[in-house]
User: Fold this.
Amino acid sequence: MTEKVHIPPGHPRAESLRIRERMVEYARRGVVVLSGLIAHGRGEAFDYLIGERTTESARKAIRAAAAALLQAEHPVISVNGNAAALSAHEIVHLAEVTGAAIEVNLFHRLPGREEAVAEVLREAGAREILGIGEAASAQIPEIQSDRRRVDPRGILIADVVLVPLEDGDRTEALVKMGKTVIAIDLNPLSRTAQYATITIVDNIVRAMPALVREAEGLRHLSREELREILSKYSNREVLSETIRLILERLSGLAGKGIYLSLPKDMGDPC
Ligand code: ATP
Ligand code: MG
Assistant:
C-alpha cells in the first residue's frame, strides 16, 4: 500500500500537486522512471512561465496537429511512461478519432516496463499496442538510447508521429527521416520544440483533451481542406509568439513584483 498525501482543495497549486502525486504513484508501478520525474519538474517550471494555461499560440498548433493526424496515411502516437501516466485515456481517444496506431517507445526499456506502460494503455481501452518486446525490431538511425527501437508496422513507416514529451535526439532523427513530427513540450527552447514540425507548447494534461476535441471538430473535413489548414501553419511563428508571450508576461509581473494574490492576513512581507 502506498500512503496517500492529503492535498488541501484550496491550495493554490492543488492541481499541480495532484498531478505530482500521480507521477509518484506511476513511478512506484514501474511506469515512470526516476529521470521521468525530473523531466516532469522541468516541464512544471516552464508551465509557470506561460501562465499554466493553453495559450492562443498553442491553440494554433493544436489545430494544425489535429489536421496533420487526420490527413495522414499512417499516423502514430508514440507513448512513453510520463505520457501514459498523465494522458492514457486521451491517447486512446485520439487514436480512435484519427485512426492512429499507438506505439510504446521508451528511453529506458527496463525489464517489465514496456508491459507496465502497455497495461496502463489497455486499462484506458487500447486494443492494439505496437512496439512491445520483439515487435520493436526495427531501428531508426543516429540514436544511442533504446528510443531507436521501433515497430516496423508503426513509427518506422509512419508519415505523421505525435511525440508527447520527446527527447531532442529522436525528434531530430524522425524529422530527418522525412516524418511530420508533432511534439507536446512545455519548453519552447528545447531541441524537441525547435526541431519538431508542429510544437504544442502546453502541458500534456491540457493539450491532449484539447487535441481530441479539435480532431473531433475537424474529422469531417476533406484531405484537401485539412492540408489547407496545414499549409497556413508556421511553427517558427508560433514558437516566436510563445517566447514573446513569456517575455511580455514576465516584464508585466516584474513591474508589479507579485505573482500570486496572497491572502490578506499574509500581508506584504516588505
Ligand atoms: P530536449 O532533449 O528536447 O533538448 P530536454 O533534454 O531539456 O529537451 P527531456 O528531459 O529530454 O528535456 O524531456 C523532457 C521535456 O518534456 C522537457 O522539455 C519538459 O519541458 C517537457 N515536459 C515535461 N513534463 C511535461 C508535461 N507535463 N507537459 C508538457 N511537457 C512536459
Ligand atoms: Mg533531452
